[in-house]
């Protein structure tokens, strides 16, 4: 039976060298792929991030995977992420397929209960987001949006009739979308 605590120094040295080199390759690829690769995550970005981490761990610990194989896997994942975001910027249909849309959770102090249920949001999450903005009363909020990243945007008061950034939000009242 193999010793579970220590195999040999060669194995330790390999892990240290491969970990360093694989990390450098991954950082280089991420930096050269642009800021979007490291942006706030939607579901697809989250999957790519997990896959990159899993690939990094596999390259470091699995002796059957070479650094070159791991580098190609990193490149493939980052290229796929780049291609998906490139397509989503150029095609609205593709974007809707890949990402969710922002949704109105609260409007003029009233919770949108159907939306909250559909999106599986708890009242505690809403209260937390509101408190983080320094607001104590839901009635003091004009708009609260669940963004595509899963974060909440709280807009206490709409100060203008120009609401360009809100018009794309699902369930935003049609009469407001002039």
Describe the structure.
There is one protein chain. The model has no long low-confidence stretch (mean pLDDT 84). The protein has a 4-stranded antiparallel beta sheet. The chain is of the alpha+beta class. The protein has helices at 9-32, 43-61, 67-90, 92-98, 113-118, 123-132, and strands spanning 103-107, 110-111, 143-146, 152-155. Helix 1 (9-32) packs antiparallel against helix 2. It has 2 domains: 9-97; 100-176, CRO Repressor, CATH 3.30.240.20. The longest helix has 24 residues, at 9-32. Pfam families: DUF421 (PF04239), YetF_N (PF20730). It comes from Marivirga aurantiaca.
In short:
By secondary structure, the chain is an alpha+beta fold.
Radius of gyration, whole Å: 23 Å
Distance between the termini: 74 Å
Question: What general outline do the C-alpha atoms trace?
Answer: elongated
Low-confidence stretches: none
Helix content: 40-55%
Structural class: alpha+beta
Protein name: DUF421 domain-containing protein
InterPro entries: DUF421 (IPR007353), UPF0702_alpha/beta_dom_sf (IPR023090), YetF_N (IPR048454)
Domain YetF C-terminal: 91-162
Keywords: Cell membrane, Membrane, Transmembrane, Transmembrane helix
